[in-house]
Design a protein that fits this description.
- The protein is α/β, with parallel strands linked by helices and 329 residues long.
- It has helices spanning 11-22, 55-60, 72-84, 107-110, 126-142, 160-170, 201-214, 248-256, 275-278, 309-325; strands at 2-6, 29-33, 42-45, 48-51, 65-68, 88-91, 120-122, 144-153, 220-227, 234-242, 261-263, 284-291, 298-305.
- Helix 1 (11-22) crosses helix 10 (309-325).
- The chain is globular.
- It starts with a strand and ends with a helix.
- The model has no long low-confidence stretch (mean pLDDT 97).
Length: 329
């Protein structure tokens, strides 16, 4: 089982190597791929060192799966070349997510859609993944009409340069800035560029990807995505309106029983999900589960997940695990 990781030296690529090792994915040979300036460098994986190679060399080595985390333009250019060589691509960028010919997959939610001929599989946006993990069991039971979500997203979602900017600002060090404003002791209500309707691309990803993953265009979603000077994971305040009346005890049980979701909801002991607690964990955590007292059939909850793990690396590797378990690679 040869596995290529394209973008192996980046923040998410490094996390992918960590998760592959932790989950004991049966890698017989790792093929790390990165930009030209990184070719020849070494990465550590499972007690061995592997040299970074070019994408041409990686294709020639015929891996079974190539996991991409190298940006949308790289994915658009290179993923078809890997796919044409018979290699299954799992892509972490936004390049293929809304293409009608490509599956957009969260394994616990819609992994059963995958078939052996899927050669480019899209990994959803990090903030979408953690939200649909909570929405799925509730939608199956009560049918969701509308979702209002506000996100509180970690600087790690932007990459290592954003982490460096935050650390530099915190230590009064002049350095490169990837955000248009100071992020330390601040909140920036913009993630990605603005679109013609006044929403950002990140907000529209949550709208469109949720409908595609849930296979229900009738679900209305509106989002506000915000960058915070935090590490460890993304948080979301989510208001969900259902078509059917719900029972709070049943809601908590449905969520607790759903694979990959952990309920942390004990306000008497001040227990609720926080990014520090989600850091380096694969589950999606949900708490502050309560009725919206302003209108019927409506629920409020708070969702937290490590965006580099379930929001990116872990979800991609779970897709690979699903393919392997079902004989598709």
């Amino acid at each position: 089982m040869k596995i290529a990781v394209v973008g192996a030296t980046g923040l998410v690529g490094t996390k992918m190597l960590q998760v592959l090792e932790e989950r004991k994915f049966p890698v017989t040979e790792l093929i790390p791929v990165a930009s030209e300036k990184s070719i020849g460098k070494e990465v550590d994986f499972a007690g061995k060192k592997y040299k970074v190679v070019s994408y041409q060399d990686a294709i020639a080595m015929k891996p079974s799966i190539a996991i991409f985390s190298a940006g949308g333009n790289t994915s658009l250019a290179l993923a078809p070349l890997f796919a044409e060589a018979g290699i299954t691509v799992i892509d972490n960028s936004s390049a293929w997510r809304m293409n009608p010919n490509n599956k957009l997959v969260v394994p616990e939610v819609n992994g059963n859609e995958l078939i052996a001929t899927d050669k480019i599989i899209a990994n959803p946006n990090c903030s979408t993944i953690q939200m649909v993990m909570v929405l799925k069991p509730l939608h199956d039971r009560y049918k969701i009409k509308r979702v209002v979500v506000s996100t509180y997203q970690s600087v790690t979602g932007t990459g290592v340069k954003a982490v460096t900017q935050l650390q530099n600002e915190r230590n009064n060090i002049e350095g490169e800035k990837v955000y248009p404003y100071t992020i330390d002791l601040n909140i920036i209500p913009q993630i990605d560029v603005f679109t013609d309707n006044g929403y950002t691309k990140e907000e529209m990803k949550m709208v469109n990807e949720t409908k595609k993953i849930m296979h229900d265009d009738s679900i209305m979603v509106t989002a506000t995505c915000v960058r915070l000077p935090v590490m460890g994971g993304h948080s979301e305040s989510v208001n969900i309106e259902f078509e059917e009346e719900f029972d709070l005890y049943d809601v908590k049980k449905l969520l607790a029983d759903f694979d990959g979701v952990t309920v942390v909801d004990d306000i008497q002991h001040l227990k609720y999900p926080m990014p520090l607690d989600a850091h380096d964990k694969d589950d999606v955590f949900v708490g502050r589960i309560r009725r919206d007292e302003t209108q019927p059939k409506t629920l409020n909850c708070w969702i937290v997940s490590d965006n580099l793990r379930k929001g990116a690396a872990t979800n991609a590797i779970q897709i690979a695990e699903y393919l392997l378990a079902n004989g598709m690679v």
